[in-house]
Amino acid sequence: MDGDVRLRLVEGPAWNSLHGGNVPAVVPGDGPAQQVAVLADIPVVYGGDGPLLIDLAGAPGRGVRVPSARLGEVLTAVTSGALTFDQLVRDMDVFGMYQGHGGRPAFPAPTAPPHRVFPALPATDTALLVRTCFDDEDGWRALLTDLNGVNEEGWVGADLDPDEIDVENYPLTARVVDDRAFEDLQPGQVPALVPPEEHTTLVALADARTFAEAGSPLTVVDLYDTPGQPAVLPCDKVGSLACNLEIANMDFHEFVAQKDVEPWWEVS
Fold first, then answer.
1. What is the biggest distance separating any 2 CA atoms in the chain, rounded to whole angstroms?
2. 64: closest CA among 210, 131, 77?
3. With 70 as the cut, is the pLDDT of residue 4 above it?
4. pLDDT band at 127 (very low <50, low <70, confident <90, very high)
5. Nearest to 226 by CA among 26, 102, 92
6. In this structure, are residues 73 and 50 in contact, taking their beta carbons and an 8 Å threshold?
7. What is the DSSP string of 127-156?
8. Residue 2 confidence class, pLDDT cut points 50, 70, 90
9. Cα(129)–Cα(21) distance, rounded to whole angstroms?
10. 189, 212 in Cβ contact below 8 A?
11. C-alpha to C-alpha distance for 156 and 159, rounded to whole angstroms
12. Is the Cα torsion angle 20, 187, 172, 159 positive or negative in sign?
């Protein structure tokens, strides 16, 4: 590996299927401060993708992939301070690859805000809808109505008649999190808040954009391939994303809109 960084190999059954967002919690906190970790996850082992770099400092748990041939170069630049993790994030393509050739995302991932502690999100094996903007109460209620309403257990889309479902606009089934503790939560901060006990499909953020733009777009956060990467979708398309991820029919990057390219869901 080119560069001056030496990696300590850590492996074992305890880390089987470890996801990027959960890495900060297993890094020892009694040693020297770590800036990044390198994860050889499922896409690396089976798909040949570049290794996943995990942020341990700015927004712990967010990830960026780098080409294998450039791993040493990038790690040397990061650990020396010549390259920040925010710069890695800004230069991702739609596949989450640093300086990749997959096209620039139409909605780049925001850089890490000042460090702030958020509580853990609820554990679920489906999806979470998290309110992060509290400036428009009427808009929030209208969004929940558009998503087929909330039942007594705090879920949207849970009580629909299967015979009435529009498969072209598959409804989102998600546990609703309406708590000011998550106000201003950013995509890159989400992966570390998702408990590892359940295989949560995705986290959708109802942020300021949701209540200001047509279609009530939600900022959906990838938890697996590139933790923290956002995809901005009209609220009525997020259910299709969740459904396709659950059955492994499509990958997250296929829902990341590319700059100057019309998204597939808008093509008539």
1. 60
2. 77
3. no
4. very high
5. 92
6. no
7. EEEEE---S-HHHHHHHHHHTT-B-TTSEE
8. low
9. 18
10. no
11. 8
12. positive
